[in-house]
Amino acid sequence: MSASADALDTIRAQIAFGAAQIGRFEAMLLLGHAIGRTREFLIAHDDETLDEESILRYHMLITLRSAGTPIPYITGRQEFFGRYFEVNDAVLIPRPDTEVLVEQALLVAPAKPRILDLGTGSGCIAITLALEIPGAEVTATDASAAALATAERNARALGASVRFREGFWWDAVPQKDMFEVVVSNPPYIRPDDEHLANLGNEPLGALTDGIDGLQCLRDIVAGAMAHLKKGGWLLLEHGYDQGEDVRNLLLSAGFAAVHTKKDYGGNDRVTFG
Ligand code: GLN
């Protein structure tokens, strides 16, 4: 056995150290982030030694993670629909379930559509649609200036052309602006939902309306008809138990062809009409 096999400053030893606290997968992610190396590099060079500063940086990240900070807020990025988006604690971390909303929007969008994304957060929906649909003209809104700044950086980094507007829901949209597709993943968690406690690092205002979970969805549906072209579509993400409520909201507002799509977990997630 060589002397370095017992050394505590090798990549291998430091992965084992982190794995005991946060699991091997996350330990490798954070070590890779701390030293600017890929997972493949860590595996191929696991007997290399790390300098003290790198180890300190890595241990700080483990402490953050152990205290509950989500990995994307530590690494500053999250994958969505095959692209990496910058995230920070001003925006919701993009969820795989939201890809169901994007997929459905891609199915219903006509050629060269005018698209509106209300409450864009990181910009993941608006930017993905702008990049996936040739000739799409995309507008995205958010009430948070910090979120909009993040979305703008993401659009620039990914080469998407999106018009950003600040304001609450329809307040941000000029009266005469009309769209073929309106999408939104608004805050829809009920304030008394026990899941909310586990999402404590993300902006509360992006998660819950503070009322009954349906208020933002109501506000969006209420204004949608006035901004949709004839034959246009409204697509809304919502909670697993809100499908019927949202279908009824759309039907009462005069929408037709109202359907709900399930997410990857088999729950109602996206209603459109
Ligand atoms: N539209 C963004 C997303 O889907 C933000 C949603 C939100 O903050 N509620 O991730």
From TrEMBL:
<keyword id="KW-0808">Transferase</keyword>
<feature type="binding site">
    <location>
        <position position="169"/>
    </location>
    <ligand>
        <name>S-adenosyl-L-methionine</name>
    </ligand>
</feature>
<keyword id="KW-0489">Methyltransferase</keyword>
<comment type="function">
    <text>Methylates the class 1 translation termination release factors RF1/PrfA and RF2/PrfB on the glutamine residue of the universally conserved GGQ motif.</text>
</comment>
<feature type="domain" description="Release factor glutamine methyltransferase N-terminal">
    <location>
        <begin position="20"/>
        <end position="76"/>
    </location>
</feature>
<dbReference type="InterPro" id="IPR019874">
    <property type="entry name" value="RF_methyltr_PrmC"/>
</dbReference>
<keyword id="KW-0949">S-adenosyl-L-methionine</keyword>
<feature type="binding site">
    <location>
        <position position="142"/>
    </location>
    <ligand>
        <name>S-adenosyl-L-methionine</name>
    </ligand>
</feature>
<comment type="similarity">
    <text>Belongs to the protein N5-glutamine methyltransferase family. PrmC subfamily.</text>
</comment>
<protein>
    <recommendedName>
        <fullName>Release factor glutamine methyltransferase</fullName>
        <ecNumber>2.1.1.297</ecNumber>
    </recommendedName>
</protein>
<dbReference type="GO" id="GO:0102559">
    <property type="term" value="F:peptide chain release factor N(5)-glutamine methyltransferase activity"/>
</dbReference>
<dbReference type="InterPro" id="IPR007848">
    <property type="entry name" value="Small_mtfrase_dom"/>
</dbReference>
<dbReference type="InterPro" id="IPR004556">
    <property type="entry name" value="HemK-like"/>
</dbReference>
<feature type="binding site">
    <location>
        <begin position="185"/>
        <end position="188"/>
    </location>
    <ligand>
        <name>substrate</name>
    </ligand>
</feature>
<feature type="binding site">
    <location>
        <begin position="119"/>
        <end position="123"/>
    </location>
    <ligand>
        <name>S-adenosyl-L-methionine</name>
    </ligand>
</feature>
<dbReference type="InterPro" id="IPR040758">
    <property type="entry name" value="PrmC_N"/>
</dbReference>
<dbReference type="Pfam" id="PF05175">
    <property type="entry name" value="MTS"/>
</dbReference>
<dbReference type="Pfam" id="PF17827">
    <property type="entry name" value="PrmC_N"/>
</dbReference>
<feature type="domain" description="Methyltransferase small">
    <location>
        <begin position="99"/>
        <end position="192"/>
    </location>
</feature>
<dbReference type="GO" id="GO:0032259">
    <property type="term" value="P:methylation"/>
</dbReference>
<feature type="binding site">
    <location>
        <position position="185"/>
    </location>
    <ligand>
        <name>S-adenosyl-L-methionine</name>
    </ligand>
</feature>
<dbReference type="InterPro" id="IPR002052">
    <property type="entry name" value="DNA_methylase_N6_adenine_CS"/>
</dbReference>
<dbReference type="InterPro" id="IPR050320">
    <property type="entry name" value="N5-glutamine_MTase"/>
</dbReference>
<dbReference type="InterPro" id="IPR029063">
    <property type="entry name" value="SAM-dependent_MTases_sf"/>
</dbReference>
